[in-house]
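Please describe what follows:
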Amino acid sequence: MATTRLTVVVGSAPRITLLLQADVIQSDAPNNRSLVRAYLVAQVPSAGSWYGYHDGVVTGNVGGNSFSVTGYDADVAQGSYGWTRGPWDFWIQHNADGTLNMYLGLSVNYPHLTGGTGSTSGSMWLPTLTVPPGTPWGATLVRNSDSQATASWNRNEPGNGQATSFDAYRSTNSGAWSAIGNIPPTSQLTFAVGTNQKIEAQVRAINAAGSSGWAQTNPVWTTPAAPSNVAAQKQPDNSIVVSLASNVGYSEHEHLIEHGVMTGSTKTWDGTVLATLPAGTTSYKHASPPPQSIHIYRVWARTTDVSHLESAKVESGSVQLIAPPNTPTIATLPQWSDPSIALRIDWTHNPVDTTAQTKAQLSYSANNGATWNDQSPLVNAYQYALVGPLGSSYLGQTLLFRVRTWGAATTGGGDGAGSSPWSATVKTSFASPPVGTILSPIGTVTQATLVVAVGFAQAQGATAVRARIELRSGAQLLETRDTTTLPATTMATKLLDGHTYTVTVTVTDSHGLTSTPVTSTITVDYTDPVPAGVKAVYLPEQGTAMLTLTIPPAGPAQAAAVAVTVTRSINGVAEQLGEKLPAASSMSLLDATPTINGTNLYTVTTWSIDGAATSVTYQLDTREKRWVFLASGDDYTDMIRVYGNLSLGASPSLDQALFRAEGRPRPIALWGTTVTDETTVTATIDPTEGSTVDQVRQFLRTAHRVCYRDPTGARIFGQVKGQIQNRTAAKADLSLTITEAD
């Protein structure tokens, strides 16, 4: 609370000191006033000095309120040092804005004292009285466009309750309130909105004393969203149901439906609203549309407030009511058919009015359409018919077929009773299926390689087109081979000694007919060839491996080896070094590109004359620590080696191309599927042990596809580029770039 004091000293000797004290003891902000309490205090220097002086008058003024006191000395006579008068309480009204600098005055007149008069005045600032702002009134919201709305309100703030800011909130589609923002004192706010929204706003005023109540505006709506999935569907009672999916974000809307008809590709709209659907209703039944017309509908959303904002119009598909179907589509028949098998004839019902097929009639001609044999109508919805089997009497004949269908119509059409026109004709000729036979294998097979010979016959002179050979072990299908080489087809599956297999053959002729499958069960009985002896040695100066093979004579229960196949596998990737090489008692084979730091797994397979195979493996581990090898030429026999400051770097990349497109400021990147790996290498050329500078230079000039290998185990096939920088006449630094390529 505020307090102030005024002091007046009167008299010469003795003197009296008079003090006016004013205190704010209560604030009444709603009424913009404060309660001020005043006291008057007299102070004297000694008890006996004032006796007999009782005629003094003191007057005071507190905020325009006056009071007076007549001198009083009874207490002085009793030895007191002074007296106190009051209190006086005054309600002081503040300025309109809650501020007040209150006037204070004090006047003293003691006529019996020398110098016994005096006065003083001053002021005191009372605490400013502030009340919360009043609630705004008359809040309204106006839609400016589908992207902007303006809220307006009347401010309601007393002089001592002025707002320092306003809170503005919005609600979209009756959802929760969310802040638009805290804004300076104003009476209007424009903010962004979107389509398909119901927007409401509310504001309140804020100052240091608190906030007002909320003032809520009226709602406004923006253009509603158009419906989707607008469809029209014919009903059994010849009505049409129009359905839609509503996409409007608020309930204050309706959907309007307009009807039209189609003539060819021309749409003619009625120009009036057929139906108005309230919110939540998503279908309408058009009870009695003219059955002879093709009907179409369009639907749109509209707000139900006075603005009547409308969405885009969305059209349904067209609907034909009851009408005979269009010509059915009949499926093409094979050129040749087997009369001993029922012939299936398929077609597609093509309705005009969307009704399903109720019956169909098939007709055939044996004299190229001169006369027709109409079959009894099929009263079902199946869109196919089975004819026959016709039997061997139809061999060599050609039949034409046609079909017509019915929907829901019972009048009009080709027969006057609602049928479609007859379809286009399809034809087929009848011939005997071919006969396939298995000439071999039969009974026991004495080799691991299966060669199948197939026989073919067809009564009307058709030629063989294909034979399908299937090899099974029990119920398991091992291999299927289609072949045009009937006398001898070699299967890829290796037969296992002592096992039983089934060979099944069907043949197809030039008529497109396929034979009945024939089978042959075989038993395998052969002898495995003698295994090879294998030894491999790493040659560090060339970075190659030398394989020595020993093929011993056949022993008991062994067949002689007539051929040898050698493969080498590195990290699970196999490469063939020699395929079915003629076998000899002693053989040598050079592997020019083994890994020089890793495991090389060699598989040597010996073959008997019967196609049987025996495989052995040999593991060669290499641990090159120093040399880098590059090989090129036929069989990679052109080779250099370098060593020293080996340093590797890899730069993988994905194929890409840039294309410029109209309307785009930057090109478009199109990415391929090929990954390119580029490896950079630095090493040293030292001819005292490795290749010379001239040898390396000549290699780089003439090398095509190279094989790069180094002590890290890297093994790269591709293209090489190099740079040589001489240190001395003999030694040089070598920089290589190897790009991996097939």
